[in-house]
Amino acid sequence: MSFEPVTIATWNFPNASQKAGEMLAAGASALDAVEQGVMVEEANLKNTTVGKGGRPDRDGNVTLDACIMDPGGNAGAVAYLKNNTHAVAVARKVMEETPHVMLVGDGADRFAQQMGFKKEELLTDDSKADYLKWLEKKEYKPLINIENHDTIGMLCIDSKGDISGACTTSGLSYKMNGRVGDSPIIGSGLFLDNEVGGAVATGMGEAIMKNVSSFLVVELMRQGKPPQESCEIAIKRIIAGSPNHKDFQAAVIAVNKKGEVGSYCIQEGFSYMKYHGGKNVNFSSDFYL
Ligand code: SD4
Q1: What ipTM goes with this model?
Q2: So where does this one cross the membrane (predicted)?
């Protein structure tokens, strides 16, 4: 039985969803499509929150977090990766070539080089100039929405109906050195079950991690709830536990096994891409506030 493939991705990254959608239409697996799709943004120097050109931590280091899951429930992740643009590809190697799920820091960088990834400098002239400007005041204020420039989380369903997902980021700009967010944490930034569906999250990683939001969305869909309602319950769970929820953004998007999609967030301004049947469309998400 052939399934009409679906790709969804956080924020307004049309080139990434187009890449994945076209690959799926040509018969690629969900795993290959999701990896190649998010790699488009990792390589995009204008995107200051993913891959090369991402904003550094407050000590000037660009550190990347990413994870990937395949339809078999296998998972790979890296955190605090400093010398490779394609964190998601390193995460896939962790999944496929090691007995582990997650590698961090120097070990992750060494592993990437052993796997043949070339060592790169991730701080670009532009992100360095922004950082030097930030140093003048050293104000740490995560921006609520940075439309078009944010973490990319993507879910793909291929023509066999199999689901894969990925999430990749440079994390919050000017975070503390060593800080890791939700994006590489299986269950927080990404979770999927090939029998049920998948979810990815973006926004304030600390809130998403404390609520294991992507796992929650998938478990709600497992209980039979539609993706939209599942996303709403998960975001309202974050809101209920966060008296300061007016000050940050958190968003989840989800797709179930039938290809139905949901999206919900705290603040207005979040959108997501959907590629389906040759159409690549950006949708505004429903929001709480
Ligand atoms: C993090 N969730 O590191 C990421 C950042 C993000 O929209 O998604 N920003 O907390």
Answers
A1: 0.98
A2: none
Q: Which of 172, 174, 252 to mutate to test the pocket of ligand 1 (most atoms within 8 A of CB)?
A: 172
Please give the Cα distance from 112 to 229 (Å, whole number).
39
Q: Quick: pLDDT tens for 161-212.
A: 999 999 999 999 899 999 999 999 999 999 999 999 999 999 999 999 999 9
How confident is the model over 123-141, as pLDDT tens digits? 999 989 989 999 998 887 7
Residue 12 contacts residue 147 (beta carbons within 8 Å): yes
In angstroms and rounded to an integer, the radius of gyration of the C-alpha atoms of the chain is: 17
CA-based nearest residue to 164, from 75, 58, 272: 75
Pairwise CA distance, residues 44 & 170, whole Å: 12
For residues 274 and 155, give the distance between their C-alpha atoms in angstroms, rounded to a whole number: 10
- From CA 253, how far away is CA 5, in angstroms rounded? 17
Q: Known catalytic residue: 151?
A: yes
Catalytic residue among 151, 168, 169, 202: 151
d(CA 121, CA 257): 40
From the number of C-beta atoms within 10 Å of its C-beta (0-12, 13-18, 19+), residue 70 rates as: buried
DSSP labels for 217-250?
HHHHHHTT--HHHHHHHHHHHHHHT-TTGGG--E
Candidates 175, 183, 208, 265: which one to mutate for ligand 1, based on the most atoms within 8 Å of Cβ?
183
Q: Residues enclosing ligand 1, CB less than 6 A?
A: 150-151, 169, 171-172, 181-183, 202-205
